[in-house]
Every structure is written in structure tokens, then in C-alpha cells.
Amino acid sequence: MIDAAGLRVMRAIADEGSFTAAALSLGYSQPAISQMVRRLETRTGTTLVERVGRSVRLTEAGAVLARHAGPVLSALDAAEEEVAAIAGLRSGRVRLMAFPSASATLVPKALAKVKAEHPGVTITFSEAEPRESLAALRAGECDLAVAFVYEGTDLGRGEEDLDAFVTTPLLDDEVLLAVPHDHELASAKKADMAALQDETWIAGCPRCRGHLLQLASTAGYVPDIAYETEDYVAVMGLIAEGLGVAVIPDLILKTVHHEDVVALPMTPASRRHIVAVTTPDLQRVPAVKATLDALVDSARSSRAKPSRASR
């Protein structure tokens, strides 16, 4: 009912004492001021200005609008400035979530890039597996999620309806077989999954464990999983002591090394797809878009660096 332009006019009339002076201060014509006052009176259903000769004075209702105009217009100006700052990447907030191996590799470089190029943008980060980060994105508790999906499965794994999301591919991450340095396969060029049915296995996160079961099932057996841990430092320690073998994504091997562990490609080849996930609306928010672009750049850089544990 009451717009910002009408409030500006009422404040100008209160300050200047006439339509002519108010028009001059606002850069309007005097007839335009008169028309705006009449429209505001129609909307409010009451008289706002009393004309006295060549001057005017505000009625009680007009004085109320003029009194409130200052704080309201100041708040609007502040809001416009904040929105302009966000649109211009002088400020902004992004809530980012990523799974552990991405948080140790892709995320730090991306955060550093955004900080260097847009120091006014604030990024908060928390670590979560894909199921939790996608649920947070859907609940409005996250703006951007870095997730992964193994070949042959869907990102939501039937747990999430992804129609409301948009995904940006970041990296195809090869899954390798990790064995002790004195294992008979340590010097091989590749490992055939079908020939590993007698091995003792070490499983990782729920999605990784599910992928191991799928690979083994395709090869015709059920793997003997003796150890389960999501801590890949522990996984490498178990392998180094000869307690088992594991399938480990290459991205993890870029940060977790052990001199007594060897990683080699598998037959058939196995990969997981790493993606950034957000919503169509959030993708258009400048700070979110800048963070997404930084993640793409970080992934491109990561592709050029081989893992130390692979042969």
C-alpha cells in the first residue's frame, strides 16, 4: 500500500514545507509530487496533506508517515547496498559441505582461490558424506555440496530425489587396488578383480563398502571383509602390516601415503565420479558461482598430479 517513493515524498514535504520545494529537492516536477500525494492518499484512505495558501502542512496521518519514512528508507538503502555488495562479490556467504577425501584435496585450493579473489566472501565449511550433505542441501542448511558416486550407481542411491538439484562434474577418480609391498601383485601392472576372491579385505565408508561388494559380486564372489574403517590412515596401516587389501580411490592416495603399500589399476577399471551439487537458484548467486568455479579449477589442477602410492 505504501511504497518507498511515497515515503520519500512525505519526508521531503515535511522537511521543505511546500510541494514546489519538495519537488526541487527530489528532482521531480511539482505536478508529479501532487500526483504522488493523491495516489498515496487514495491508498491509505485518508488525507495526508492540508493545503494552506501557497504552503502545505501534514495532517496527523501525514506526519506519521513522514516520521517513519527516515528509518524505513535508511533500512531500504542499507538493504540495497548489501544486495549490491553480494551481487558484486564484495560480500556474501557460502555454506560448503564435502566428503573427507575432497576436503583434504579439492576444497583447500578452492577456498584459497575464493579468498584471494573475493576477500569479502565468507565460506563456512563442514565435512559430510554425500548422503548427509545432499540432505542438508535439500533442507536449506547448505549451499553447495561436493559428493561422489561410483560407476553403475546413482548419486542419490535411491535415498534422495535429485530433480531439484543441478550437478557440475569435477573429477573422474580412478579406484585402485592397494596391497602390501611384498604382495605377489605388488609388481604387477594391473590386478584382475576376479582373481582376488581369496584375499582378506579392508572396507571403508558405507558407499565404498557397497562398491567393493558390487565389484566382487560382478566378479562372482563375496569378499571376505575382516576390517572396516573410514579412516584411510588406518586402512593403509592395516595393508602395510599384511592384514588385507583394499580398493582405494586415487584422490585419497594423493594425501594418504605409506611406503609399504603399493596401488595398482584394476581390471575391469573402476571409477567414482566427483561432482558439485547445488540448486538452480543458488547456482545464480555470485558467491556460490565463484566457489563452484574455484572447485572446478581445483579439480582440473588435481587431475595433473599423480598419486605417490600408485605405480
From TrEMBL:
Matching PROSITE patterns: HTH_LYSR (PS50931)
Transmembrane feature ranges: none
Domain of life: Bacteria
Coiled coil, from the record: none
An example Gene Ontology CC term for this record: cytosol
Pfam families per record: HTH_1, LysR_substrate
Gene Ontology terms, MF aspect: DNA binding; DNA-binding transcription factor activity
Keywords: DNA-binding, Transcription, Transcription regulation
SUPFAM superfamilies, A to Z: Periplasmic binding protein-like II, Winged helix' DNA-binding domain
InterPro entries per record: HTH-type_LysR_regulators, LysR_HTH_N, LysR_subst-bd, WH-like_DNA-bd_sf, WH_DNA-bd_sf
Keyword match Cell division: no
Domain spans labelled HTH lysR-type: 2-59
Family note: Belongs to the LysR transcriptional regulatory family.
Name the record gives this protein: LysR family transcriptional regulator
Native organism: Knoellia flava
